[in-house]
Amino acid sequence: MDQHRILPNDGSFGQNKVTEQPVNDKGSYILGRNYAATTRLNSQHLLWKLELGWCLHPSLQALTANNHTGSFTATPNVSEATVTSSTQNLNSSAAHPNNVRIADLATGTAIWAIDVSHDFPLAYIDGFDINLQQCPPPEWLPRHVTVRRWDIYSALPPELEGSYDVVHIRLLLLVVKDNDPRPILRNALRMLKKGGYLQWDELDPWGAITVVAGEPQGDETGKEFQKRQELTPMDTLKWVLELPSIMEEVGFEDVKKEDFACALHLAKYYQDMQFMVMEEQAAAEATAEGRERVEKAIREGVGESYGKARVTPKVVFLGRKPSE
């Protein structure tokens, strides 16, 4: 048994309470949870941050009390002491950042939550995952960051209903079951306060291309290189294309979708990370034949990868819970 700080049910969020929680459940997650997988997830987060320049979407960083109950104007990279001492100077039309509560679903290593706590030191950020073994011990987490063991496909604990200004989700491409994100979206909607926002960051596998140094993007020489890396049937990923309409169906309003092309100077790093994902997929294969198939794809890909990279666009979906 591992100890991880969790959310109490008495409303005293973020008070460093600790309880024992088992951390060995794998659920439907097919990738690894060892030190290499943890390092990959953290590297992946840092690449996303380097490319996008933010963790919390800019439109959610300056919500005012006029358009969102419990909203905030956040001030990145300001120490808690500085913010506390200058409370009287804050814009009176915005709630103080210490009222903001953010949930990070499928938090993984909790790196997103930790990074956001650095950007917005007075926000309370709670990470949720079916397995917490990739998270730091509770004693090492920032003051306003907690983690809790919870399967996002299970019933929502009653104390979490209507508790959050923002719910964040990232990279569930290999987690969503049966091509249907609705169970996750329904839980996210219930977690939000009225007027709260969902931010779902995902990859668009349908937009993936292979870039080859010195050749036009999408050149024929990269197609076989790309095909060998497509280990997940594309028809199981259709939900990404349909996510905006599914969000509206579930009950979100003002749904928006933003696309972000991969920066070419980061393409090699993303490709190397893709090989790490494939190694984890190989380890998860149930048969020797399946493992060899994936390992062969890795060997062939690595052997010809210099100057080639499969790049996948990022997409961010935003949606608001109705105020009434």
Record keyword descriptors for this entry.
324 residues; alpha/beta; 7-stranded mixed sheet; 8 helices; 20% strand; globular; disordered N terminus
Write structural notes for this entry.
The protein has 324 residues and is an alpha/beta fold. Helices cover 29% and strands 20% of the residues. α1 (35-52) runs antiparallel to α7 (267-284) and α7 runs antiparallel to α8 (288-303). The longest helix has 18 residues, at 35-52. It is globular and about 55 Å long.
The biggest sheet, with number of strands, parallel, antiparallel or mixed sense and barrel status, is: 7 strands, mixed
Determine the mean pLDDT: 80
Work out the number of β strands: 11
Helix content: 25-40%
Give the strand order of the largest sheet, numbering strands 1, 2, ... along the chain.
5-4-3-6-7-11-9
Order of H and E elements: EEHHEHEEEHEEHHEHHEE
Shape: globular
Q: What portion of the residues fall into strands of 2 or more residues? A: 15-25%
- Rg over C-alpha atoms, rounded to the nearest angstrom: 20 Å
End-to-end gap: 42 Å
Structural class estimated from helices and strands: alpha/beta
SS field, number of helical segments: 8
Give the secondary structure arrangement, pairings included.
Layout: E1 2-5, E2 18-21, H1 35-52, H2 80-85, E3 101-105, H3 111-119, E4 124-129, E5 145-149, E6 164-170, H4 182-191, E7 192-203, E8 209-212, H5 223-227, H6 238-250, E9 253-260, H7 267-284, H8 288-303, E10 308-311, E11 314-320
Parallel strand pairs: 3-4, 3-6, 4-5, 6-7
Antiparallel strand pairs: 1-2, 7-11, 8-10, 9-11
Helix pairs in contact: 1-7, 7-8
